[in-house]
Write a structure and sequence with these properties.
This protein is of the alpha/beta class. 44% of the residues lie in helices and 14% in strands. The strands form three sheets. Strands 3-4-5 form a three-stranded parallel sheet, with helices on one face. It has a two-stranded parallel ribbon with strand order 1-2. Helix 2 links the parallel strand 1 (22-25) and strand 2.
């Protein structure tokens, strides 16, 4: 659900920094610069440095949860510390791409919004509306619904043509999701 409070905070931040830059924090251990270990400590150190140096110039910060989850509980601890390093007033979009049966999505919402402090999240709609409804229902938060992604194989599903019917034009699947 689109909420004025999140969008207003994002608009205020965008106006204050003069940019729409969303700082992606995707600390791949194998791609860390020299001097950073390829373990959870290196991932946390690099992500924290990135946030400290670049976040003041960003409209929002988007840490990718998978790069931390891969280390289990130690990675989640690192994620929480990186999240707490993001200055107040900067909207946080947790890149999690969640979507599952309703009860599981409700727990995803609790984890991402409440426990991890996301202002917004990314969700995958390809399991249907029920799968993402709990992630959309929070009036104080926002969910970015993936329609067409940039990964090379995305078109295998997302570009599937849908035929005319029910008052709808022929269109690719991603466009139908966008209009829903």
């Amino acid at each position: 659900m689109v909420t004025a409070s999140y969008l207003e905070r994002l608009a205020d931040r965008t106006a204050s920094v003069g940019t729409v830059l969303c700082l992606g924090v995707d600390p791949d251990p194998e791609a860390l610069p020299e001097g950073f270990s390829r373990d959870v400590a290196g991932v946390e150190a690099f992500a924290t440095l990135l946030v400290r140096v670049a976040a003041p110039f960003a409209a929002a910060v988007k840490p990718n949860l998978a790069f931390f989850e891969a280390f289990g509980s130690a990675g989640l601890g690192a994620f929480e510390r990186v999240r707490s390093a993001i200055p107040p007033g900067i909207p946080v979009v947790i890149d999690a791409k969640r979507g599952d049966i309703g009860t599981t999505s409700a727990r995803h919402a609790a984890a991402l919004y409440d426990a991890l402090g996301a202002d917004a999240i990314t969700v995958s709609p390809y399991l249907g509306e029920e799968a993402i409804r709990p992630l959309l229902e929070r009036a104080d938060r926002l969910a970015y619904v993936l329609c067409r992604t940039s990964n090379p194989g995305a078109g295998e599903l997302q570009d599937l043509p849908l035929t005319e019917g029910g008052g709808r034009p022929a269109e690719p699947l991603w466009a139908r999701i966008l209009l829903e």
